[in-house]
Amino acid sequence: NIQGKLPSSLGNCHNLSSMNLTMNQLSGTLPPEFGNLTELGAVYLSHNHLEGPLPSELGNCHNLLKLDLSFNSLNGSIPASLSSLKSLTLLDLRENRFTGGIPSFLSELQSLRELQLGGNLLGGPIPPSISLLENLMYSLNLSDNGLTGQLPSDLWRLNELQKLDVSTNNLTGTLAPLNGMPSLVEVNVSHNHFSGPIPPRLLELLNNSLTSFLGNSGLCINCALSDGYICANSKYIRTCDAGSTLQKGRLHGIQIAFIILGSSVFAVLASLCLYYVLATPRRRDKTDIEVSGKEGSR
Q1: Are 162 and 140 within 8 A, CB to CB?
Q2: What is the per-residue pLDDT for 251?
Q3: Membrane-spanning residues where (predicted)?
Q4: Is 242 a member of any domain?
Q5: Domain residues for 294?
Q6: Is pLDDT at 80 greater than 60 in this prediction?
């Protein structure tokens, strides 16, 4: 294993076209002299102990096709200078400590085929501009970032995307934007706050496996549109009609309670009225008798 820091003298290797130092014991920061390596086509530095922010000089590597810095301890925001990497097809920044949100300028990287940002501290919403990356093909990973808000309504424009992972965030809303993504073969939306029916196409796509939807208490399966087997054997996600039936049952129970209460009140009032009607003549008779007795004594 190679240990120590990356030397700034690397910037003198002007003809260097590829760097693969994956799974070593490299530490320290990325030297700004990286920006001098304008012939670099690929950088693989994953699974090391690199830290600190990304140098903005990386944006000078205009020929860069693949940049993999995953599984390190890099931090700070993703520098805007990366928008200059127009030829980039892979950007892998997974499992670091990046903050500052998902930058909207990523939509300028129109050559991207794979974008891996999972396992950071980015926070904030998914920018609508992410839907402009229409050449994304292999994977879009935004998992475990503390993201909020809803899925962009134009996400369907990523019609070549095969894998989508937005699990372990704080996302809300429905899964409707995923309906029009014909190339999807893997989806993970688990452990969020999504609600509403799961699109039947997603269930078919995942062979009726529900693990990709777990941890979303508001999600349900529409049995009228889905496979009867999954409705009968769903242990983890409720059926939409079960929810409505439960609601109807509650409403029906409330109606019955009001009817019983109303009937009881009516019965009490009727009893009081009947008692009053029956008791009044007796009082009159008693009064008449008392009056007659008094007159007779006179």
Answers
A1: no
A2: 42
A3: 256-278
A4: no
A5: 251-298
A6: yes
